[in-house]
Amino acid sequence: MQMTMQQLEQEIALALNVFKVKHVKHELIKGISVQFMIEDFGVIICGINRTDYKLVDSIIDKSYEGWRKVYITTYDDMTKKKLDILWALMQSGYMEWLRSNVPENAFRNLITRDNLARQIIEQRLKVYNNKPKYKFYIDNNKQLLGSMIDVQYVLSMNPGFFDYMPEEG
Q1: C-beta pairs of 78-85 under 8 Å, 24+ apart in sequence
Q2: 155 — phi, psi (to 5°)?
Q3: Which residues of 64-98 are buried (b: 16+ CB within 10 A; e: fewer)?
Q4: How confident is the model at residue 61, as a pLDDT?
């Protein structure tokens, strides 16, 4: 189901508020794209009308070199795109920041809600892509994935276990 640009803007703002990150909204091309800058993590979320992708992409690349970029179109499934936003934030240290800035119980609840711990591990394994240079990490994550993930135990043994998300590519 296609959203309007206004609906897309509202959905992105809502997701960023749920993630508790400070953001600033910009419109590089009014009515065609909207950008949400998350300066603390160097991430830009760009909402666009799918037909205008190339134009917006070239402007974003020039204007925001070195930033992580997540593109969301009016045709995208926001449930999936919220995870893309989370992965980009995690690659920039978001989970460590979150773990340090919210009460411990709130962090544990976040990790266990909606099976987020499992989704983080599955995304890591996808990024590692069975490459030999990641063998230790792959084995470590697969071991947890193969069993019922006891988040309490994992966090007690390694509080930062869910902090990182490897770079893709």
Answers
A1: 78/11, 78/15, 81/15, 82/15, 83/119, 83/123, 85/15, 85/16, 85/19, 85/43, 85/45
A2: -70, -30
A3: beebbebbbbbebebeebbeebbbbbbbbbbbebb
A4: 85
Highest mean predicted confidence (pLDDT) among 101-105, 120-124, 150-154: 120-124
Domain assignment of residue 72, yes or no: yes
Q: Are residues 10 and 64 in the same domain?
A: yes
| Total of domains in the chain | 2
Residues 13 and 84 grouped into a single domain:
yes
Claim to verify: residue 88 and residue 9 sit in the same structural domain = yes
User: Average of pLDDT values for 77-89?
Assistant: 96
Amino acid letter for position 84: D
Residues 10 and 89 in one domain: yes
Q: What is the pLDDT of residue 51?
A: 67
* Distance in angstroms (rounded) separating the CA atoms of residues 40 and 68: 12
- Cβ neighbours, 10 Å, residue 15: 19
pLDDT band at residue 123, thresholds of 50, 70 and 90?
very high
Asked, for residue 168, whether it belongs to a domain, the answer is: no
CA 81-75-110 angle, 5° bins: 20
Q: Are residues 10 and 66 in the same domain?
A: yes
Residue-number span of the structural domain to which 87 is assigned:
5-93
